Amino acid sequence: MNIIIAILIFSLIIVIHELGHFLLAKKNGIFVTEFSIGMGPRIISLVKTEKGYRPRFILSQHEFDTTPEWKDTTKYSWKLLPIGGSCIMMGEDEIVEDNRAFSKKGVWARISVVIAGPFFNFLLAFVLAMFIIGVVGYDPASITSVAKDSPAAKAGIQVGDVITKINGNNIDIGRDVLTYLQFNPLSDETVNLTYQRNGEKNNVTLTPLMVKTYMLGFGYQPDEAAASINSVYEDMPLAKAGLQNGDIIAKINNTTIKNGIELNQYFQDNPLSDQPLTITYSRAGTEKTVEITPVLYSENYSIGLSVNSGRVKTDAFGVVKYSAVEVKYWIKTTIESLGQIIRGKVSKDDIAGPVGIVSYIGDTYQASKSEGVLSVFLSLAYISILLSANLGVMNLLPIPALDGGRLVFLILELFRGKPVDQTKEGLVHMIGLVALMILMVFVMFNDISRLFHS
Predict the structure, then answer these.
(1) 35 neighbors 87 (Cβ within 8 angstroms)
(2) Lower Cβ count inside 10 Å, N or C end of the chain?
(3) How far apart are the first and last CA of the chain?
(4) Where are the beta strands (DSSP E) in 131-259?
(5) Angle at 241 between CA 239 and CA 246, to 5 degrees
(6) A Gene Ontology biological process annotation (predicted)?
(7) 212-296: which CATH number, 3.40.190.10, 3.40.30.10, 2.30.42.10, 3.30.420.40?
(8) What is the CATH number of domain 139-208+303-310?
């Protein structure tokens, strides 16, 4: 099931990409010899005859190309391997003396055809985003907590303020903040922050402080139910003190804890340090008290605030606006991730190819299926947005054999006033295709190795 779902998602994204090329080619009078769903050997094709479109089983490429009835019409094919699709245009990679050939059309017509594929990927991402945001809403960049005596607190920042800029970078949603800090970790350098409160924008300059994070090593739900422990981490202080899943925390340092909300509030008001805590917990109706010393977990710079990660509903205009923001977010994140790879800040284990993506899709499906069909659809639609925006960006890179590589030659033609020799361009694309295949083999090998070692 995981593999089937992954194939369906990949196929949808690639077929939509090829559909963009197809529609703009038709619009510009370029003859499309074949539009196919799937790859590899053909199973069946629809071809236009005097009596309309008829199915034809194709046994050989020679028969497909030479049968008079089929030679001069677009074939719509279903191929054996259910992965992706293709749009084959006359004169795309060879010299053809026909006014309907890709190479015979004006440069702007060809540019529109090339760009249409990535554009349709962005359009697919936008449509899927509209559905998700229409159902569950968007994540505003609002501040949910401000640490006592932190740089943010001293600057007058309050819970509910909405961040709009960090160091001159626009912030539209909560994930923008998290992604910015991921790619630009805080240091001892100042941070310029713009936030909005009651419709008024404010600017502050914050100097991050080094913050040591301590842990007890357990998990709980911050809700109105009793403060029950739902996970205990091995070799951490709570586990070493003998606490177990299901134990209920009743007191910390003589402060009564009635529920998960109060436990969460206690930790916000009293951040963990290297000082021991006296914890009273209940198990099977019996209370026990232990003294536990938190352990140092990390040392990071902080400005002392937390940003919303939940979602809120919005109106119809907001759905359209934040769907566009969603696509923008993934385009921007993809570009920044590529920059991290180029600068050597991302290891090979952080890069996923088809095998890794299939594994990720499978994990997402398994995690969401117990919550119902809607949850599964929303989760898979979210992955599809990520992948579709990713494919759009990657195809626009100036790499031979990709749409971006073709755009480079078309832009050169604009400046030169004449096209680059088609034979030379074809050779460059062939070299690029071989290089991409080698890279794909490496990425797939890396995916498989990581699966075996995980």
Answers:
(1) yes
(2) C
(3) 21
(4) 143-146, 162-166, 169-170, 191-197, 200-206, 209-215, 218-220, 229-232, 248-252, 255-256
(5) 60
(6) proteolysis
(7) 2.30.42.10
(8) 2.30.42.10
Task: Report which DSSP code applies to 276.
Answer: -
If you write DSSP's letter for every residue of 65-132 in order, what string do you get?
A: HH-HHHHTS-EEEEEEEEEEEEEEETTSSS----TTSGGGS-HHHHHHHHHHHHHHHHHHHHHHHHHH
Is 186 exposed, middle or buried (CB count within 10 Å of its CB: 0-12, 13-18, 19+)? middle
Say what the pTM is: 0.77
CA distance 443 to 440: 5
Give the pLDDT band of residue 1 (cuts 50, 70, 90). confident
Cβ–Cβ under 8 Å, residues 348 and 191: no
Q: Rounded CA gap, 121 and 114, in Å? A: 12
- Residue 199's region, left for phi above 0, alpha for psi from -120 to 50, else beta, is left
Q: How far apart (Å, rounded) are the C-alpha atoms in residues 331 and 346?
A: 18
The ranges of the chain annotated as CATH 2.30.42.10 are 139-208+303-310, 212-296
Phi, psi (deg, nearest 5) at residue 235: 65, 20
Euclidean distance between CA atoms 39 and 83, whole angstroms = 6
- Which residues lie across from 166 on neighbouring strands? 169, 193
Banded model confidence at residue 326, pLDDT cuts 50, 70, 90: very high
Non-local (6+) Cβ contacts of 449 within 8 A are none
CB neighbours (10 Å) of residue 55? 10
Q: How far apart are CA 153 and CA 304, in angstroms?
A: 7
Segment (H or E) for 301: strand 295-302
Instruction: Specify the DSSP class assigned to residue 228.
Output: B
Report the length, in residues, of the chain.
454
Q: What is the pLDDT of residues 187-242, one digit of tens each?
A: 999 999 999 999 899 999 999 999 888 999 999 988 888 999 999 998 999 999 99
What does the alpha-carbon distance between residue 390 and residue 326 come to, in Å, rounded to a whole number? 13
Predicted confidence at residue 64, as pLDDT, reads 61
SS3 345: coil
One-letter amino acid at 53 equals: Y
pLDDT band at 180 (very low <50, low <70, confident <90, very high): very high
| Angle, CA of 224, 229 and 235, to the nearest 5° | 155
Tokens encoding 193? 């922050």
Instruction: Evaluate the CA torsion angle 159, 200, 169, 129 in order and state its sign.
Output: positive
